[in-house]
Specification:
PH-domain like, alpha+beta, 25% helix
C-alpha cells in the first residue's frame, strides 16, 4: 500500500481504492478507481499553492507538497486508466 502523509492530508492507495483523510472538512473518504476521473491539479497561485481535486474532495497544497504528490497521483491516474 502506498501512503503519503502531507501537512493536512493523508492519502493511501492500494492499487484499486484511494482513501483520503483530512482536507478542509477533516473528512475521510474512499474512492474505487473504476468510479473516479483522473485527479486534477491547478497551476500554483501567487502564494504558491495549488488546488488538487480528486473525486468530490478538493484541497490546497504548497509547492513542496506538490513535488511529493505528483508521483503518487501518477500511480492513481494510471490505475484509473487501466480500470476503464
Amino acid at each position: 500500500m502506498d501512503e503519503l502523509i502531507l501537512r493536512t492530508v493523508v492519502l493511501q492507495f492500494d492499487g484499486r481504492v484511494l482513501e483520503i483523510f483530512g482536507g478542509p472538512n477533516n473528512d475521510a473518504i474512499r474512492y474505487h478507481v473504476a468510479l473516479l476521473k483522473e485527479p486534477d491539479t491547478s497551476e500554483p497561485s501567487r502564494k504558491g499553492r495549488s488546488l488538487v481535486k480528486i473525486g468530490s474532495h478538493a484541497f490546497y497544497l504548497g509547492a513542496d507538497e506538490m513535488e511529493l504528490l505528483r508521483p503518487f497521483l501518477d500511480r492513481v491516474a494510471e490505475a484509473i486508466r487501466a480500470a476503464r
